[in-house]
Each structure stands twice: as structure tokens, then as C-alpha cells.
UniProtKB/TrEMBL annotation:
<dbReference type="InterPro" id="IPR013822">
    <property type="entry name" value="Signal_recog_particl_SRP54_hlx"/>
</dbReference>
<keyword id="KW-1003">Cell membrane</keyword>
<dbReference type="InterPro" id="IPR027417">
    <property type="entry name" value="P-loop_NTPase"/>
</dbReference>
<feature type="binding site">
    <location>
        <begin position="105"/>
        <end position="112"/>
    </location>
    <ligand>
        <name>GTP</name>
    </ligand>
</feature>
<feature type="binding site">
    <location>
        <begin position="186"/>
        <end position="190"/>
    </location>
    <ligand>
        <name>GTP</name>
    </ligand>
</feature>
<dbReference type="GO" id="GO:0005886">
    <property type="term" value="C:plasma membrane"/>
</dbReference>
<dbReference type="GO" id="GO:0006614">
    <property type="term" value="P:SRP-dependent cotranslational protein targeting to membrane"/>
</dbReference>
<comment type="similarity">
    <text>Belongs to the GTP-binding SRP family. FtsY subfamily.</text>
</comment>
<dbReference type="GO" id="GO:0003924">
    <property type="term" value="F:GTPase activity"/>
</dbReference>
<dbReference type="InterPro" id="IPR036225">
    <property type="entry name" value="SRP/SRP_N"/>
</dbReference>
<dbReference type="InterPro" id="IPR003593">
    <property type="entry name" value="AAA+_ATPase"/>
</dbReference>
<keyword id="KW-0472">Membrane</keyword>
<dbReference type="InterPro" id="IPR004390">
    <property type="entry name" value="SR_rcpt_FtsY"/>
</dbReference>
<feature type="binding site">
    <location>
        <begin position="250"/>
        <end position="253"/>
    </location>
    <ligand>
        <name>GTP</name>
    </ligand>
</feature>
<keyword id="KW-0378">Hydrolase</keyword>
<keyword id="KW-0675">Receptor</keyword>
<dbReference type="GO" id="GO:0005047">
    <property type="term" value="F:signal recognition particle binding"/>
</dbReference>
């Protein structure tokens, strides 16, 4: 546990150093707040979250009668942790059998890797998993998913060049017939046009719902933590099209834009089920608001 926290810290330090250095002086004055504002914006926290944090911090500083920058830094950690707290929510499996989890994300976000990691995480918890490779356009995507399935020794349903929604229907039916605990549906990340992509994802959602009237039970979006404010744009667009239930934020082991979680918390608070902190199968961690806030300020 220690090692991933260190990786998160060293990743976020690229952001964090900017925020942390604001507090290396000796005085609490307007300059400090101005520098802090700039540092939060640089870390891609966005205008709304930055203003919220500054107002909240001034109130906390007054209440605590803080006199030293170090104390202000600790109060900022509290303010960020409180802002991020609503994003901290566990992924719950077991209410439905199978629990159908649809996973979306633009190419390169780390979707396939995250599905591999999530499969491992679920299997470690004793759940049986079936993977549905609905990205029928890209042979490479199917092959990569098959490698992950192999590594995790789980079943995979796929079809070359077929209708993605039909693959999902088959997978959910197979998941039911085989008594699986979880069906993980990997969707395409890019189609000829962005509009087309959303249409296809909506279709998959509808067809999954035909195979099981209560499904999908979870709709996850995988986003690259390095994309900054663009991550927020993606959350909004996918949420509007698919009604997201959770996020997986990847590549937080090497980002200078860790403030984007503050923007998400403020503008589109979809729970963060997991964070990716490396390329290996075990590099998936549950999100903890306080740990994250502290890593951001390390
Ligand atoms: P997809 O196109 O969304 O399916 O993306 P992939 O799963 O193929 O991942 C794209 C690249 O990001 C690969 O090189 C992965 O190893 C890398 N990657 C994914 N998640 C993480 C992470 O949490 N940390 C780091 N450092 N790299 C990651």
C-alpha cells in the first residue's frame, strides 16, 4: 500500500510542488492567496473549484486563527479532502447476478488495461468474471483484451467484425447461463465520428438492458488523469449520453494535472471507484479523498 501511495505522491508532486511551494514563505498575505490561485489553476482544478477552495480556505484560516503558512497548508488539505469526499464511493458487486458493468473511454485512456486490472481485482475478491469484447472494429483491442482474459483465466465473449451490441447481448446471456458474478463489457473507444460513438454506446446500453432488464448496473468511464480539463469535458459528454455511475482515473502515477479531480467534484461529481497508478495488473487502487488531497500537496 505504501508503494502505490508513494507513486501517487511522486506523480502528483509534479502538480503538487506548484501548490506546496506556495506555503514555503513566512507570511499569510494576499500574495499567498494569489499564488495559490495560480497554482490550483495550473493543476487544472478549473475556475469554479479554485474559487470554491479559496473561499473555503479563507473561512477556515479565520476560524482557526492560523498564523503560519504551514497551518494554512494543512487547512487547504482539509478543504480539498472535503471537496473530494463525495467522489469516494466503493464499487459494490453482488446485488445482481451477474452484475453487468459497461466500460467506456476514448482510445488511449487506459480502458483495456483498467479492465484487466478490474478483472484481477474482482477475481481477488472471489467473483467470477466474463469479459465481453464489444470493440469489434479493432482487432488489436480484441486481442489485447484476450491477453488480459488469459492472464486472469476468465471467459471472454467476442466476435470478429460483428455488431458490438449483439456481442454484448450474447455476453450478458452467457453470463446468466454460466452463473457468472460479473460481466464486464469493453466498448469501442473511437469510431469514424464522435457522434457515432455516443450513438453506438447508447445502443449497447439499450441492448444490454434487453438481455437483462435491470442492466447495466454500472456504467464506468475510464479517463486519463493527464488530460486535465479535457477529462471534465469527457465526463460531462459521456454522462449525458450514458448516465455514468462511476469513473476510473488512470495514469495518476505521472501527472501534473491532478487538480482535475477537484473540477470533477465541483462540476460533475461522478464517483471515482478506482485510480490507476501504474501499468501493471495490480496498479489499481480504491480512491481515498484524504490520501489524494495529501498527495496533491506533498
Ligand atoms: P485504451 O486504448 O484506452 O484501451 O488504452 P490502453 O489500456 O491500451 O492503455 C494505453 C497506455 O496507457 C498503455 O501503454 C498502458 O500501459 C498505459 N496505462 C494505462 N493505465 C495506466 C496507469 O495507470 N499508469 C500508467 N503509467 N500507464 C497506464
Amino acid at each position: 500500500r505504501e508503494s502505490w501511495l508513494n507513486r501517487l505522491k511522486s506523480g502528483l508532486r509534479r502538480t503538487g510542488s506548484g501548490i506546496a511551494t506556495v506555503f514555503t514563505g513566512t507570511r499569510i498575505d494576499e500574495d499567498l492567496y494569489e499564488e495559490l490561485e495560480a497554482a490550483l489553476l495550473m493543476a487544472d482544478s478549473g475556475v469554479s473549484a479554485t474559487q470554491h477552495l479559496l473561499t473555503d480556505l479563507r473561512r477556515r484560516v479565520k476560524e482557526a486563527k492560523a498564523t503560519e503558512p504551514a497551518a494554512v497548508k494543512a487547512l487547504l488539505a482539509d478543504a480539498i479532502a472535503d471537496l473530494l469526499k463525495p467522489l469516494q464511493k466503493p464499487l459494490v458487486i453482488g446485488e445482481h447476478k451477474p452484475t453487468v458493468i459497461m466500460v467506456a473511454g476514448v482510445n488511449g485512456a487506459g480502458k483495456t488495461t483498467s479492465i484487466g486490472k478490474l478483472t484481477r481485482h474482482l477475481a481477488d475478491d472471489g467473483a467470477s468474471v466474463l469479459l465481453a469484447a464489444a470493440d469489434t472494429f479493432r482487432a488489436a483491442a480484441r486481442e489485447q483484451l484476450a491477453v488480459w482474459a488469459d492472464r486472469n483465466t476468465v471467459d471472454i465473449v467476442t466476435q470478429e467484425g460483428g455488431d458490438p451490441a449483439a456481442v454484448c447481448f450474447d455476453a450478458v446471456s452467457a453470463g446468466k447461463a454460466r452463473g457468472k458474478d460479473v460481466v464486464l463489457v469493453d466498448t469501442a473507444g473511437r469510431l469514424p465520428t464522435q457522434l457515432h460513438l455516443m450513438e453506438e454506446l447508447r445502443k449497447i446500453r439499450r441492448v444490454v438492458n434487453k438481455a437483462d432488464a435491470s442492466a447495466p448496473h454500472e456504467v464506468l468511464l475510464v479517463i486519463d488523469g493527464n488530460t486535465g480539463q479535457n477529462a471534465l469535458t469527457q465526463v460531462k459528454a459521456f454522462d449525458e449520453a450514458l448516465q455514468l455511475t462511476g469513473l476510473i482515473i488512470t495514469k495518476l502515477d505521472g501527472t501534473a494535472k491532478g487538480g482535475v479531480l477537484c473540477a470533477i467534484a465541483r462540476e460533475r461529481p461522478v464517483p471515482v471507484y478506482f485510480i490507476g497508478v501504474g501499468e501493471k495488473l495490480e496498479d489499481l487502487e480504491t480512491f481515498d479523498a484524504r490520501e489524494y488531497a495529501q498527495a496533491l500537496l506533498s
